[in-house]
Design brief:
- Helix content is 24%, strand content 44%.
- It has 124 residues and is an alpha+beta fold.
- The protein has one domain: Roll (Nuclear Transport Factor 2, Chain: A).
- It has a 6-stranded mixed β-sheet.
- The termini are far apart.
Length: 124
């Protein structure tokens, strides 16, 4: 399996919020590091069971969606740029841009490291 096809299937899973489809593209020993968490790396989820828990929490937003903005692949490494859109419990629409850094092995994602730009109100 090639990296492009693996990442296409994973992106489709994120777009449709299909956790099983997303997990099918991760290796059993994969690591997912989120953009936010208690450690400098964000929050680390190791193994498919932990990644499933992270995805279930992530998809709880009322209108959560991810839109692909581009992808670059070089060997077993890839970068995917995206727009993340959701609504807070208070009804505020939130849009952030980010990227995922991927490492692949034998057609499966072994590492997904997510980064988000921080949106702040302009200084006055």
């Amino acid at each position: 399996m090639d990296s492009e096809s693996t990442l296409d299937r994973m992106a489709d899973g994120f777009r449709t919020k299909d956790i099983d489809a997303i997990l099918a593209e991760f290796a059993d020993d994969a690591v997912f590091e989120t953009a936010v968490g208690p450690e400098p790396c964000g929050e680390r989820f190791a193994g498919k069971a932990a990644i499933r828990d992270a995805l279930e929490r992530m998809f709880k937003g009322p209108d959560f969606r991810i839109e692909s903005l581009g992808r670059w692949i070089a060997g077993d490494r890839a970068v995917s740029q995206f727009r993340y859109v959701t609504t807070t419990p208070g009804g505020e629409r939130v849009e952030l841009h980010g990227c995922d850094l991927f490492t692949l092995r034998d057609g499966k994602v072994v590492r997904k490291d997510t980064y988000l730009k921080q949106a702040r109100k302009p200084r006055t």
